[in-house]
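[agent] plan:
  1. take the single chain provided in the ticket
  2. run structure prediction with default settings
  3. attach structure tokens to the ticket
  4. add a short note for the reviewer (M.T.)
[agent] executing step 1
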Amino acid sequence: MSGEYKKLVSYWIAASQKDLDAAREIFRNTNNYVSVLFYIHLFIEKALKAYFVFTKKKHAPYSHNLLFLCKEAGLDIGEKNIKLLSEINEFNIECRYPDEKFSIYKRAKKSFTEKYLKKGEEFYTWILEKLK
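[agent] step 2 finished; step 3 output follows
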């Protein structure tokens, strides 16, 4: 891999780690669970972009859709993770543009958020293993 792409992979990994750290810190220190859900999407998105650059040796697509990024990278994630990433994709939209009932705020309770943070961390670790 050329130096340019190694730097890009390192950039995406570092950026995803910062977002994971932010998600953990917000979760630990506040009850702003909607922000945690948004950061979960971000750290997974950036890890997938690192994987894309790592495997395709080109810049990552300009997309926030986690399933699209997996498909474009040729990453087989299995049915369980397809369901997980589909759910996390929704957080990106709902956190940015809540509906008129603010339903994301009603669902984003501590246990709900903790569940997705844990599952997101597991997926993140799995992706990082593939970058070795």
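[agent] step 4 note for reviewer: The chain is about 80% helix and 0% strand.
[agent] ticket updated
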